[in-house]
Specification:
The complex is a heterotrimer of chains A (about 375), B (about 325) and C (about 350). With about 325 residues, chain B is an alpha/beta fold. Chain B contains twelve helices and 14 strands. Chain B folds into two domains: about 180 residues, Thiamin diphosphate (ThDP)-binding fold, Pyr/PP domains (Rossmann fold), CATH 3.40.50.970; about 130 residues, 3-Layer(aba) Sandwich (Rossmann fold), CATH 3.40.50.920. Chain C starts with 10 loop residues before the first strand and ends in a 9-residue tail after the last helix. Classes of the chains: A alpha+beta (about 375), B alpha/beta (about 325), C alpha/beta (about 350).
Chain lengths: ~375, ~325, ~350
C-alpha cells in the first residue's frame, strides 16, 4: 500500500502536531482534497492529498507529533469492493461456507397427510367435549364431513336408544363399578317356615333375621375400605331395602333396624315405599346402607348371586316362598320354605363368617311367628 | 329535527366542527365557491371565507401534504379529495408522512388531519370514479380509516374524525349520498371511532360489511327472514383501528359469518376480518367464513358495472351456503 | 408575433473562490464577529460530518449522507432565519439544523437510527429530515399557510436538492405557494449530483431557479459556497415573505464533495479530476482566506477552533454511543395518541409489558 508521508512544510521544522483529520478510513479522496490539519510554529496547515485513492488506514491521532517524512496514512491498492447499495448494508454469503450444490434443490418430502375425519371447528370442539371419536362417527355432512347432528347421534347410539337417566343411570354406573371392585362369593340355603302364620310379615321377618345374623357375625355388617384395605366396624345395622319401581331400582335405607320394633319397621317400610312411588326420596334416605336386602322372591326366582355395592360387604337375597319337597326323617314332605342367598365380599369376609351369618339368619327365620 | 341525506349530514358536521373550533379548516378542489362537486362543503365558504375554506389548485398530493404542514402547526385540516380514484397519489403523503409523523418525532409533531373522499361504485360514472381503496389505507400503521353508512353515522363519525388527534381517512359512499334521508340531531355529538355498530340482531349468521354495501346486506337480511334465516348485520364503521371484539362476540354466538365488500376480493379488508375470526373464534365456527366481494378485476365501465357489484342475490346465496353447511 | 412573457435569472456572489470580495458587502458581513461566527459554524459542521463518516465506517452509525463542501448553504440559511421561523430540511442540511439549535447528539441519534434524534429540544416546530425526495415541499406550504392564517410574521424555509426539482410534489408546492402568495422560501441546494445523475441529465432547464417563474414567484441563483451571499439572499427572501410579498426560490450553487452516502462510491460515476477542481472552490477555505486577509484569523484561532469543535463533537458522539437503544415496546409508542385495543393485544402477544408510558 502507498503511504502518504508528512511533507516538509517549510519553516525548517522537523515535525508537526496533528490537529484534526478531515477524512476517515474507507473514504475515497481526490487530488487536492484536504486530508488533515497540522500545526506548525506559524500556522495551522491543511495538507491536501497528492493522489486520488481510497484510505486504508490512518496512522496517527490528533495531538500526536509526527516527524517529517513519517507515514500519516496508507492508501488502498487494488479495486475497492462494490457495496452495491446507496443505503444500508446488503448481506453477502460468507466465503468460508460454500453452498452445497443441490442443497436447496430437493424440496422436503411432504409428510403424508392422514385422511382424518373432516368436521367444522365447532363440531370438533363439541366432539371433544362429549368424548366422541370423530373417526368412528358416521358423517352425513357435505364432502363426507361430520355434522353436529352426527356427533349428538353418536353419543345417543341408534335412533331408538334411550339415554339412561336418573336411577337407571345411577344403577348402571354403580353396578359396573361394583362388579370391578368386589370379590363376590355366594352361599345359598333354605329356611323352613312351616311354622309361620299365613299373615306373617315376610319383609319384617327377613329384616329381624338379618339383624340377628349381624349380631352373631358382625363382620357381614362392616364396611370395607378398598383403598386402604381396611375394615370399618359399624355399630348399627342400616339396612338398604331394594325397592322396585317403574322408574327403576331404589335402595332406601332403614336405619338401626336392630333397635326397631316390628310395627316400627313395617311403618317405616311403608313410608319408604310410598316415598319411592311419589319420588320424594331424599339423598339422605339413600345414603350409606351397611348391608342390603333384596326380596326378589315376591316376583320370581329362588336363589341369586347379587351384586354388592361397596363399601358394603354383604347382600341378602330372599327368593320365592313356596311348598317344596324336604326330608323329614326318612320321608319326603312338602314344606313351606324361603330360599335365602348370601353374597359376600370375600376381600373382607371369609366362608366361615358367611356360613355362621347364614345359620343365624336361618335360625331366626325358622322360629314360629 | 330536519331529515337529511348522507352528504347533507357531512355538511352539517363540517359546519358544526368549524363553528366549534377555529382550528378546523376545509381545503380541496372546488370546495369553496362551488361548495364541493357533491355539495358536501356547501355554504361553508360563505360562512367562513377564503381563509378557512380554501379552493386549492389541482394537486392532490399537495393537498394531502399541505394538510400535513397545517396539522403539524396546530390546525385541524379537513381535506377533500374529489374522488378516491384521485386519492392514490395522496398515499405517499399519508403513508410516508401523516401516519408516521407522531412516532418518528416521539410525539413532538402530530398530524390531526382528515382526508375525506367519495368512494365506491354504482353511480354510473366514467372510469376511475368508482374505487374502493379502503384496504390500502387500512394497511398503513398510524392511520385511521372510517366509512359511514347512514346520515346519522356520517354526522357523528365525521365529527369524531375531525376531533381525533391522529390522521383519519374518511371514505363517504357516493352511492348513498342521496338515497336515504333520516333525522339527524345537529347536537355536535360525535360517535366513537373504534366501534362496530350492530344494525340488526340475528341468531343464525353474522353479516359484516361497511359503506354502501350495508344497503344490500340489510336487504338480504330482511329477505332471508322470510325463509326463517335470521341474520345479524354489523356495520364495521371504523375499519382501523378495528373493534374485533364486537365481531368475535357475534360470531361466537352464531357460528357463521359472511363478509360483504364492494372492493376486489384479494387482500380486501374482509380478509383481515376473516383472519381475526379464524384466529380467535375458530372453535365457534360451524361453517367456513364466506366473503362476498367484487371480483379481482378492474371495476368495469358503467354498462357492465352491475355485474361486478355484490348483489342481494349473491349475498343471500352465500348465507344459504353457510347455513346449510353443517 | 408578440412576446408575452420574459424572465431573467440573476446570480449573487460576494466572495469569490479565493476569498476576494467581488460585490458590495452587506451590512452583517462588515461585522467580523458575524463572519467568524459563520466560519465557526461551518467548521463545526464539517467536524461533525467527518466524525459521522468515521463512525459509520466503524459500524457505529448507519448509512450517513455527508454535507462535505455544502456547509455554506446550511449555515447561511440558519443564520438568516429567525428562531420562530420553521426549517424543513431534506437530509443534507446538518449545518442548518445545527444552526437552528438541533444538538450534535440529536443528529448522531437520528443517523444512528434512533427516533429520539427527531425529538428536538430546541427549534421544536422544525421538521425532521425528509427522505422521500421533495415530499416535504407541500408541508412547507402548509406551514406557511398556517402562519398566514394566524397572521404571524413567520416564514417556512424548505431546502431540497437538484434532483428534487424533478418531483411532482415540488412542482405542486411551488405552484400553490405562488398562487396563494405564502411566506415560504424554497432553497434548492444544487450540488451537481443526484446520486449518479448529474444535473445536466436531471433537466434541460438552463437553471433550476427558473422553475420558480413557472410557479409565479421570483427565482434567483446564488453562489452556494459563499456563505455571505447565501445569508444575504435568504435574508432578503425572508423579508419579502414576512412583508406579505410571497415566496421565493433560491438556487444555491454548490458541489457535493462527498459520495451521495457512505454506502455510495462516487468514483464509479464521476471524474476525480472534476472533484479535485471543486475543492478549490470550497466554502470554508474561501472564508478563511478572507478572514486571514482581514487579519481577523490566525493560527491560534484555527487551532483553538479545531480543538473546540473536535471536543464538542467527541463529547456528543460519546454521549450518543453511551445511550441505550429504545426498548422494543417503544415501537408501539406514538403510533397513535392512544393505543387501540388490538395494538395493546399485539404488545402483549409479543411479550412486551403493556405499561402505558406516554398517553
Amino acid at each position: 500500500m502507498t503511504a502518504f508521508k508528512l511533507p516538509d512544510l517549510g519553516e525548517g521544522l522537523p515535525d508537526a502536531e496533528i490537529v484534526a483529520w478531515h477524512v476517515a478510513e474507507g473514504d475515497h479522496v481526490v487530488v487536492d482534497q484536504p486530508l488533515l490539519s497540522v500545526e506548525t510554529a506559524k500556522a495551522v496547515v491543511e495538507l491536501p492529498s497528492p493522489q486520488a485513492g481510497r484510505i486504508a488506514q490512518l496512522l496517527a491521532k490528533p495531538g500526536e507529533r509526527v516527524a517529517v517524512g513519517s507515514p500519516l496514512l496508507l492508501f488502498e491498492e487494488g479495486p475497492h469492493p462494490d457495496a452495491g447499495t446507496v443505503v444500508g448494508e446488503l448481506e453477502t454469503p460468507k466465503p468460508s461456507t460454500p453452498t452445497r450444490p443441490g442443497a436447496e434443490a430437493s424440496a422436503p418430502t411432504p409428510t403424508e397427510r392422514s385422511a382424518g375425519p373432516r368436521a367444522a371447528p365447532a363440531v370438533r370442539a363439541r366432539a371433544r367435549e362429549l368424548g366422541v371419536d370423530l373417526a368412528r362417527t358416521t358423517p352425513s355432512g357435505p364432502g363426507g364431513s361430520v355434522t353436529m347432528a352426527d356427533v349428538d347421534a353418536s353419543v345417543a347410539g341408534t335412533a331408538q336408544d334411550i339415554p339412561l337417566r336418573g336411577a337407571r343411570r345411577t344403577m348402571a354406573l354403580n353396578m359396573a363399578r361394583a362388579w370391578r371392585e368386589v370379590a363376590h362369593a355366594t352361599l345359598h340355603d333354605e329356611a323352613d317356615i312351616a311354622t309361620w302364620s299365613a299373615q306373617e310379615d315376610v319383609t319384617v321377618r327377613l329384616i329381624r333375621a338379618i339383624a340377628a345374623a349381624c349380631a352373631a357375625e358382625p363382620t357381614l355388617n362392616a364396611s370395607f375400605i378398598g383403598a386402604t384395605n381396611a375394615l370399618r366396624k359399624n355399630d348399627r345395622v342400616d339396612l338398604g331395602l331394594a325397592i322396585d319401581s317403574p322408574d327403576g331400582l331404589f335402595v332406601p335405607v332403614l336405619r338401626d333396624v336392630a333397635q326397631a320394633t316390628s310395627a316400627d319397621l313395617r311403618q317405616r317400610i311403608d313410608a319408604l315405599k310410598q316415598a319411592v312411588r311419589v319420588r320424594t326420596l331424599t339423598p339422605a334416605d339413600l345414603r350409606q346402607p351397611t348391608l342390603t336386602l333384596s326380596n326378589f322372591g315376591t316376583i320370581a326366582g329362588t336363589h341369586a348371586a347379587l351384586i354388592i355395592v361397596p363399601p358394603q360387604v354383604a347382600i341378602v337375597g330372599a327368593g320365592r316362598i313356596g311348598q317344596r319337597p324336604a326330608a323329614r326323617g326318612n320321608a319326603i314332605e312338602l314344606r313351606r320354605t324361603l330360599p335365602l342367598s348370601l353374597t359376600f365380599d370375600h376381600r373382607a369376609v371369609n366362608g366361615g363368617e358367611a356360613a355362621r351369618f347364614m345359620r343365624a339368619a336361618l335360625a331366626d327365620l325358622e322360629r314360629p311367628t | 329535527m330536519p331529515e337529511v341525506n348522507l352528504v347533507q349530514a357531512v355538511n352539517l358536521a363540517l359546519r358544526r366542527a368549524m363553528a366549534d373550533d377555529t382550528r378546523v379548516l376545509v381545503l380541496g378542489e372546488d370546495v369553496g365557491v362551488d361548495g364541493g362537486v357533491f355539495r358536501a362543503t356547501d355554504g361553508l365558504h360563505q360562512l367562513y371565507g377564503a381563509y378557512r375554506v380554501l379552493d386549492t389548485p389541482l394537486a392532490e398530493a399537495a393537498i394531502a401534504g399541505v394538510s400535513v404542514g397545517l396539522a403539524a402547526q396546530g390546525f385541524l385540516p379537513v381535506a377533500e379529495i374529489q374522488f378516491t380514484g384521485f386519492a392514490y397519489t395522496c398515499i405517499d403523503q399519508l403513508l410516508n408522512h401523516a401516519a408516521r409523523l407522531r412516532t418518528r418525532t416521539r410525539g413532538r409533531l402530530t398530524c390531526p388531519m382528515v382526508l375525506r373522499s367519495p368512494a365506491g361504485g354504482g353511480i354510473h360514472a366514467v372510469e376511475h370514479h368508482s374505487e374502493s381503496p379502503e384496504a390500502m389505507f387500512a394497511h398503513i400503521p398510524g392511520l385511521k380509516v372510517v366509512i359511514p353508512s347512514s346520515p346519522a353515522r356520517a354526522y357523528g363519525l365525521l365529527l369524531s374524525a375531525i376531533r381525533d388527534p391522529d390522521p383519519v381517512v374518511f371514505l363517504e359512499p357516493t352511492r348513498l349520498y342521496r338515497t336515504t334521508r333520516e333525522e339527524v340531531a345537529d347536537d355536535g355529538a360525535g360517535l366513537p371511532l373504534e366501534r362496530c355498530v350492530v344494525l340488526r340482531g340475528g341468531r343464525d349468521v353474522t353479516l359484516v360489511s361497511w359503506g354502501a354495501m350495508l344497503k344490500e346486506t340489510l336487504e338480504a337480511a330482511e329477505r332471508l327472514s322470510d325463509d326463517n334465516i335470521e341474520a345479524e348485520v354489523i356495520d364495521v364503521a371504523t375499519l382501523k383501528p378495528l373493534d374485533d371484539a364486537t365481531i368475535l362476540d357475534a360470531v361466537t354466538r352464531t357460528g357463521r359469518m359472511v363478509v360483504v365488500q364492494e372492493a376486489p376480493l384479494t387482500c380486501g379488508f374482509g380478509a383481515e376480518i376473516a383472519a381475526r375470526v379464524a384466529e380467535h373464534a375458530l372453535t365457534s365456527l360451524l361453517a367456513p367464513i364466506e366473503r362476498v366481494a367484487g371480483y379481482d378485476t378492474v371495476m368495469p365501465y358503467p354498462r357492465t358495472e352491475s355485474f361486478y357489484m355484490p348483489s342481494v342475490e349473491r349475498i343471500m346465496a352465500a348465507v344459504r351456503r353457510t347455513v346449510a353447511y353443517t | 408575433m408578440t412576446t408575452v412573457a420574459e424572465f431573467t435569472i440573476s446570480s449573487t456572489r460576494v466572495l469569490d473562490a479565493s476569498g476576494k470580495v467581488v460585490a458590495p458587502l452587506p451590512a452583517f458581513a462588515k461585522d467580523v464577529d458575524a463572519l467568524t461566527s459563520l466560519y465557526r459554524a461551518m467548521t463545526l459542521t464539517r467536524t461533525f460530518d467527518a466524525k459521522a463518516v468515521a463512525l459509520q465506517r466503524t459500524g457505529r452509525l448507519g448509512t450517513y449522507a455527508s454535507s462535505l463542501g455544502q456547509e455554506a448553504v446550511g449555515v447561511g440559511i440558519a443564520a438568516a432565519m429567525r428562531p420562530d421561523d420553521v426549517l424543513l430540511p431534506s437530509f443534507r442540511e446538518h449545518g442548518a439544523q445545527l444552526g437552528r439549535g438541533v444538538s450534535l447528539e440529536e443528529l448522531f441519534l437520528y443517523w444512528g437510527g434512533d427516533e429520539r434524534g427527531n425529538d428536538f429540544s430546541r427549534a421544536t416546530a422544525d421538521f425532521p429530515n425528509c427522505v422521500p425526495v421533495g415530499s416535504h415541499a407541500p408541508h412547507a406550504v402548509g406551514v406557511a399557510l398556517a402562519f398566514r392564517l394566524r397572521k404571524e410574521p413567520r416564514v417556512a424555509v424548505c431546502v431540497f436538492g437538484d434532483g428534487a426539482t424533478s418531483k411532482g410534489d415540488v412542482a405542486e408546492a411551488l405552484n400553490m405557494a405562488g398562487v396563494w402568495t405564502l411566506p415560504v422560501v424554497f432553497v434548492v441546494s444544487n450540488n451537481g449530483w443526484a446520486i449518479s445523475v448529474p444535473v445536466t441529465k436531471q433537466t434541460s432547464a438552463a437553471t433550476l431557479a427558473q422553475k420558480a417563474i413557472a410557479a409565479g414567484m421570483p427565482g434567483e441563483q446564488v453562489d452556494g459556497n459563499d456563505v455571505i451571499a447565501v445569508r444575504l439572499a435568504v435574508e432578503a427572501a425572508l423579508d419579502r415573505a414576512r412583508n406579505g410579498d410571497g415566496p421565493t426560490l433560491i438556487e444555491a450553487m454548490t458541489y457535493r464533495l462527498s459520495d451521495h452516502t457512505t454506502a455510495d462510491d462516487a468514483s464509479r460515476y464521476r471524474d476525480d479530476a472534476e472533484v479535485s477542481h471543486h475543492w478549490s472552490e470550497e466554502p470554508i477555505l474561501r472564508l478563511r482566506n478572507y478572514l486571514v486577509s482581514l487579519g481577523a484569523w490566525g493560527k491560534e484561532q484555527e487551532e483553538q477552533l479545531l480543538h473546540a469543535c473536535s471536543q464538542q463533537v467527541e463529547t456528543a458522539a460519546a454521549a450518543f454511543l453511551r445511550t441505550s437503544p429504545l426498548p422494543p415496546r417503544a415501537m408501539f409508542d406514538h403510533t397513535y395518541a392512544r393505543l387501540p385495543a388490538d395494538l395493546v393485544g399485539q404488545i402483549e402477544a409479543a411479550g412486551f409489558p403493556a405499561a402505558d408510558a406516554h398517553a
